[in-house]
Write a structure and sequence with these properties.
Blueprint (H helix, E strand, L loop, with lengths): L12 E3 L2 H9 L6 E4 L7 H4 L3 E2 L8 H6 L4 E5 L5 H7 L11 E5 L7 H12 L6 H20 L5 E5 L6 E2 L6 H8 L2 E3 L15 E2 L11 E5 L7 H10 L4 E5 L1 H5 L5 H23 L1
């Protein structure tokens, strides 16, 4: 067994990323999960008894330390840098350095690499190898299905927040997932490896907003209501607003397969709508 891995009886996993908590359970790692954030709500039956340690951005570090994890899963976009830096200094109850698993999938094509990363950390635990193999097979099938679908090849504005209006840069997971189905997010900007530029703030007076045809309104992190839709229509007067499942759109890992299915359906919906308008 690799030196850095803990014996199965000693492994204690804390996950500070909601989508990865879901994936861990699906991969058979639920029995070793000892801590999660309050946003790690899926699957409900499996995580109900797992201790909560605050949110993704405001982790209760004292409580997390009392739970004595041997491994902590974090994500570049979802967790704070100071949290990650503090965790790098931790040691486990047995005195060895904490195993920090830093994830950063930037698109659906990164899902196999994420599985490899998790298997390197936990593949020696009993009973999980078969679950990893099943996940790879299921994702490969979903990927092939997505390649067979017709792409919409349309620009879309995907809003994730209001006051201020915020969108997504083209190198984020959301944008890369949408681009896989031919839906290119606006503005056409790159956000870099980390930082606020990955989620551009709109001033509301950008000239290109007047020409936007499709606006996507995910159900999270901001839940858009009817009053918000009216405001979006003032922002983009020519646009049609489409409600989107925010979890399937943004939860890399745990919702990677559902995300591929979602964007294929979304692209088909746009194509069908365009066909009706052109008849």
């Amino acid at each position: 067994m690799p030196e850095e891995l803990q014996p199965a009886s000693a492994c204690r996993i804390a996950c500070l990323v909601p989508s990865l908590t879901l994936l861990l359970v699906r991969l058979g790692l639920g029995p070793w999960l000892v801590a999660r954030t309050g946003f790690c709500i899926h699957p409900a039956d499996a995580v109900r008894e797992v201790s909560k340690v605050g949110g993704t951005k405001d982790v209760n570090m004292a409580k997390l330390q009392r739970l004595a994890p041997t491994h902590v899963l974090v994500n570049v976009d979802e967790n704070r840098l100071d949290t990650v830096q503090a965790l790098r200094e931790w040691r486990t109850a047995s005195g060895v350095p904490l195993q920090l698993v830093v994830t950063h999938p930037c698109g659906p094509a990164d899902h196999p690499a994420l599985l490899n990363q998790l298997e390197a950390a936990f593949g020696e635990l009993p009973g999980v190898a078969q679950a990893f193999a099943a996940e790879r097979i299921a994702f490969a099938a979903a990927w092939q299905d997505s390649l067979a679908s017709q792409a919409a090849r349309e620009d879309v504005l995907c809003l994730i927040w209001r006051a201020p209006w915020m969108s997504v840069a083209r190198d984020t997971y959301i944008s890369q997932l949408l681009a896989h189905a031919g839906l290119m997010t606006l503005p056409a900007s790159q956000g870099g490896a980390s930082g606020a530029a990955r989620y551009p703030v709109l001033q509301g007076d950008e000239p290109w907003l007047a020409d936007v045809r499709w606006v996507l309104l995910p159900s999270e992190p901001y839940r858009f209501e009817a009053a918000d839709v009216q405001a979006v229509r003032r922002l983009c007067p020519r646009a049609e607003c489409l409600a989107v499942d925010g979890e399937a759109l943004s939860w890399h890992g745990g919702m990677a397969i559902e995300g591929l299915q979602l964007v294929r359906q979304l692209a088909n919906r746009i194509l069908n709508r365009q066909a009706l308008e052109n008849t």
